[in-house]
């Protein structure tokens, strides 16, 4: 005789779009979401942002992908069910899930609200959950996560333009705070004016920081200065501009995910300045040591943020009316969107209208 789970513990049928192999092409996919446990929150997915890391993952460019893979870790929606021991949320609340859905909850990192640095951190998609089930992301109709890893969305923050903040937003907000580059009057450079870079400019400006955008594209100058409110603009390939700006920046947030030289960026820093890398190039970057020694400069990295800081970031965004600049697309446009992400042909973040355009394959 086979024991059966109680009815409420049965996995739930779900539907999304998945990559089946390294071609990276996504197609409709039926799967099972784990049951809603006593500390879980289930919600209907309304919007999900497309992150550049989704593209890396669907094509297995980091060598860790297991198929089938449903991407998406900028997920927002409305609560449909809560477990019996859930305390923070109720049906009807607007909520979001970012890059992780689990951690050990007991190590030093977890105890200090830095679950993102836990060695047992569980990614929102493409990972194994505690019960052995696979985690699936937000290119799908529903989501289930422990309430600890759920973020509350303020009513005045639009869900579509707010969704990318759950990855792009926290990825730049966290290093600005941690490395002390959030003090009014400081001068910070933002390298790359893409999905991460444009929200970095918005957060830094809201913190009272003077912002210089550093880009390889001269045609982004007007956008940076007039639309995003940056104070100045540097073309990184213009040697005269870079030479004139040497030693002027207190810190730099480098959002570029392609291989690029670090020496020109280090040269822009004042003594004791900090260059923080948040992009993830496929190949190692060359790091010049002598300029670091002579200027006591720091090169560091930063990975999104813990849940407490993510909630802080969302609340800060709502207070200062910070959203991502998005292009909202239907679910069946996702493969074309991926191709455009590869070409940086988006201003600045694709967001899938999951709630209205994901059609179950019946």
Automatic annotation (TrEMBL):
**What SUPFAM superfamilies would the database entry show?**
GroES-like, NAD(P)-binding Rossmann-fold domains
Single GO MF descriptor: zinc ion binding
Q: What does the record list as GO biological process?
A: lignin biosynthetic process
Q: According to the UniProt entry, what is the EC number of this protein?
A: 1.1.1.255
The cofactors it requires, by name, are: Zn(2+)
Q: Could you name the domain of life of the organism this protein comes from?
A: Eukaryota
Instruction: Fetch the InterPro entries from UniProt.
Output: ADH-like_C, ADH-like_N, ADH_Zn_CS, CAD-like, ER, GroES-like_sf, NAD(P)-bd_dom_sf
Q: Where is the Enoyl reductase (ER) domain?
A: 24-352
Q: Which UniProt keywords apply?
A: Metal-binding, NAD, Oxidoreductase, Zinc
Q: Which reaction does it catalyse?
A: D-mannitol + NAD(+) = D-mannose + NADH + H(+)
Q: What class of enzyme is it?
A: oxidoreductase
Protein family membership: Belongs to the zinc-containing alcohol dehydrogenase family.
* Its job: Oxidizes mannitol to mannose. Provides the initial step by which translocated mannitol is committed to central metabolism and, by regulating mannitol pool size, is important in regulating salt tolerance at the cellular level.
Record-given protein name: mannitol dehydrogenase
Recorded source organism is: Populus deltoides (Eastern poplar)
Lineage start: Eukaryota, Viridiplantae, Streptophyta, Embryophyta, Tracheophyta
């Amino acid at each position: 005789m086979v024991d059966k789970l109680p009815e409420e513990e049965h996995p739930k049928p779900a539907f999304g779009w998945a990559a089946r192999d390294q071609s990276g092409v996504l197609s409709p996919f039926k799967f099972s979401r784990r049951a809603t446990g006593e500390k879980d929150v289930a919600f209907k997915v309304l919007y999900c942002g497309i992150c550049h890391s989704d593209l890396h993952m669907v094509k297995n460019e980091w060598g860790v992908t297991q198929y089938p893979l449903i991407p998406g870790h900028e997920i927002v929606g409305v609560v449909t069910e809560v477990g019996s021991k859930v305390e923070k949320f109720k049906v009807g609340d607007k909520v979001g899930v970012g890059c992780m859905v689990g951690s050990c909850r007991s190590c030093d990192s977890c105890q200090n609200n830095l679950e993102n640095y836990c060695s047992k951190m569980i990614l929102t998609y493409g990972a194994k959950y505690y019960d052995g089930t696979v985690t699936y992301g937000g290119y799908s109709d529903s989501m289930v996560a422990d309430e600890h890893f759920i973020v509350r969305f303020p009513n005045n923050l639009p869900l579509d333009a707010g969704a990318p903040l759950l990855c792009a937003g926290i990825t730049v907000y966290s290093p600005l705070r941690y490395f002390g580059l959030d003090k009014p009057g400081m001068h910070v450079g933002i390298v790359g004016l893409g999905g991460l870079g444009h929200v970095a400019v918005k957060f830094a400006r809201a913190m009272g920081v003077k912002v210089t955008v550093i880009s390889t594209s001269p045609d982004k100058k007007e956008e940076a200065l007039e639309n995003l409110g940056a104070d100045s603009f540097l073309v990184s390939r213009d040697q005269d501009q870079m030479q004139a700006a040497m030693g002027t920046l207190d810190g730099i947030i480098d959002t570029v995910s392609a291989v690029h030289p670090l020496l020109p960026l280090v040269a822009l820093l004042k003594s004791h300045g900090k260059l923080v890398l948040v992009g993830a190039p496929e190949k190692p970057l060359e790091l010049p040591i002598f300029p670091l020694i002579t200027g006591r400069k720091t090169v560091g990295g930063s990975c999104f943020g813990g849940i407490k800081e993510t909630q802080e970031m969302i609340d800060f965004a709502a207070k200062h009316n910070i959203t991502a600049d998005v292009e909202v697309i239907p679910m069946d446009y996702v493969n074309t969107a991926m191709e455009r992400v590869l070409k940086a042909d988006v201003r600045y973040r694709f967001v899938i209208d999951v709630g209205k355009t994901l059609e179950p394959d019946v």
